Amino acid sequence: MLEKLKQQVYEANMQLPKLGLVTFTWGNVSGIDRDKGLFVIKPSGVDYENLKPEDMVVVNLKGEVVEGKMNPSSDTPTHTVLYNAFPKIGGIVHTHSPWAVSFAAAKMDVPAFNTTAADTFFGDVPAADALTKEEIEADYEGNTGHAIVRTFKERHLDYEAIPAALVSQHGPFAWGPTPDKAVYNAKVLEVVAGEDYHTLQLTRSNSELPQYLLDKHYYRKHGNNAYYGQNNAHSKDHAVREN
Amino acid sequence: MLEKLKQQVYEANMQLPKLGLVTFTWGNVSGIDRDKGLFVIKPSGVDYENLKPEDMVVVNLKGEVVEGKMNPSSDTPTHTVLYNAFPKIGGIVHTHSPWAVSFAAAKMDVPAFNTTAADTFFGDVPAADALTKEEIEADYEGNTGHAIVRTFKERHLDYEAIPAALVSQHGPFAWGPTPDKAVYNAKVLEVVAGEDYHTLQLTRSNSELPQYLLDKHYYRKHGNNAYYGQNNAHSKDHAVREN
Amino acid sequence: MLEKLKQQVYEANMQLPKLGLVTFTWGNVSGIDRDKGLFVIKPSGVDYENLKPEDMVVVNLKGEVVEGKMNPSSDTPTHTVLYNAFPKIGGIVHTHSPWAVSFAAAKMDVPAFNTTAADTFFGDVPAADALTKEEIEADYEGNTGHAIVRTFKERHLDYEAIPAALVSQHGPFAWGPTPDKAVYNAKVLEVVAGEDYHTLQLTRSNSELPQYLLDKHYYRKHGNNAYYGQNNAHSKDHAVREN
Amino acid sequence: MLEKLKQQVYEANMQLPKLGLVTFTWGNVSGIDRDKGLFVIKPSGVDYENLKPEDMVVVNLKGEVVEGKMNPSSDTPTHTVLYNAFPKIGGIVHTHSPWAVSFAAAKMDVPAFNTTAADTFFGDVPAADALTKEEIEADYEGNTGHAIVRTFKERHLDYEAIPAALVSQHGPFAWGPTPDKAVYNAKVLEVVAGEDYHTLQLTRSNSELPQYLLDKHYYRKHGNNAYYGQNNAHSKDHAVREN
Question: In what order do the strands lie in the sheet with A27-33?
């Protein structure tokens, strides 16, 4: 069942240690088959070196396990909420990558200070509010997803143009049209968070990019007029800005 | 004698360079057989690349060598004190990992700022007081252990729920139900110390987790209601909170 | 066509991941044949692990593709401007290396604080002004090159003695007599930017080298009286200071 | 001539890239045969991957080349001064390792903040004064050595108990009874400088170790009563404190 997607999700998971985004088992990637309404996710607490494609767990959009011998990631309810709220995404990744976690613990957005950010994120990557006591006790992982969704709604952000968020006190979630692209975005977020940290220490002041530079770099790689790369495949990956 | 435990302790020691926790020979792991009242520890000053399982030294709970051709780690008296004071631990590790040492030199706790910490440490990892002149001259390594034990007692901390400590001006000790799990905890401490450093620089203010988030993340992985991982083996590893 | 130069440019590009200067595809190296007035550059958005010498694209000094099946780097117009303005350089490299990007986002020069810098850069590596809205919209990549050239002119800098620049909000460009040497200079810039960051945090004050130390270290490696290395080949690589 | 020493010096040089202490060719190790009054040093500007034992250059204590096809390190006059002034040392290493360079550029000692330092350095590693214009122009590399020697004299430091120094604006030199031990000391200095930087940022205050802890850790590894390691060979390596 969904063997090809399992393979893709497996390979995207295996990118996490290769890209230096996980310690031990602290990360998970999922990918969705929108036609079938099912997603495939890493099993909980399995070491990357022992992971196999057939270990992937199949889950429906109510968050129920449909196939798989192992427990799915304990963050499965977060993935479920995000797939339901963000209908155009095809993959999600959660890590505890240390630069992003440092900003999450500080409850700070990862700002768009440089074109490395602007190539991927059309503005600051937002830090969703820390969960309340009630949210944590009622449905921790589900409410983690709702906090992200609420943040995008309240701040009028486009989830395709800013394909990542921090959850305050916790860490980063990233997504994209495919599991592979979600992992790419998670890596960009980690690199940019490290650069932003150092820029903030150097300046202790606002270093935000102007909108016209954000426009230039983002649309150089995304949308119908993209001219980076060999086939401008990016134009199919990402929708243009909504507002 | 204790060949299986020697192999376990050897393998746990070999994890230290692999996880980036040691430079040269600056670390040691031990593991205990509680029934026999004997523990096994790395020999002093031996390079990791030359270390063999049969080099491990067997020591009793008075700190006396029972078997072994080599000198045990010069930190053996610290391990002895900890095994006697903390009856439920099965393994201990000491390293000079640089983020933890940076906090130890600053005489600062490693705070619980994020859920990476909360997954393993049910609150701040305490920095034990620096040893006095008298303590250093009388029994340096033994008093290093006593400083840790005293800190847990005075601050009413549960050594199973917070399985690590810093010794001010010196560095980290971590422990756990097994040597392997002690090394795991030492790595978490190092990762969290690095993240905390950056969060502190970003905020210069208190970023402590609320108790309800600590509860959620800690008990998601530990105790009878844990639901992380495949067999909730964590519930057997760690006792629940005492107070 | 230009097979030997393609091989050189290919090899210089492959140095970027080896030296830790790129993430994903975020870098490009070019090299020029001055006699023919043609330069060779990495294709746009191709992974380093799939790159082959024959993928290199040949471009003339108007920035037009002369040979090659693939699109050239989207930064090709920047390279074109620099080759036209700086007639003695033979190779150019652009990366998003994180320490240099951190300074670029802060719009700060990378100062000459130590002899590691002075061995390669005869003074601070300048941060060119951020591009204006008009410059970005009219000809983004070309104006990126013009911003660098204008900075060198306005500040009376010698592009052979300071073979690199930052573009504010963006990142580093480096150059040299050969593609290989341009990559060397890009690596020195990254190392020095990291050291400078830490020195600035330690001192929060001006730590600029005096001119006489700059003279000594720079001319120990460059010019007719160089005495570093085996054949003082450096004397052929770099012209002496102009003013 | 001196084939065994050449092999030792070669191997000690090859430790530098392995320990992450050099970028490109920015480091050199030498070792001395005190009976013959000759030392062996790395040739100038040769890549580590191409270095061979027979490339090592033999130099006498006037700094004259006695044997070797290649130019010796351009820092040879510094080594010469140090061998003459510090009669008990057997090896010297110079690197541009980045944490030590960051402190050197800040003209700051690397303080003894933790026992990782105290195990090797019996107090702060001093930053020698920056060279004056006259010193640089007259005999740059020789005066680099004299600046170190003068610092030890003026501050009443024991070069065997503190086997390293920074040269302000430049970088670290370390030494020891053998070339291998000099490299070890250079690595300790780099690790400690990184830790000290972070401790300083955390505390912004004095975190100096008390003398009694320095005594304990230093003499645990050095001198007649050392008890670290297997054969207390350290007692032969290092003289005890002079004053």
Answer: A65-67, A57-60, A38-41, A27-33, A91-95, A171-176, A164-167, A127-128
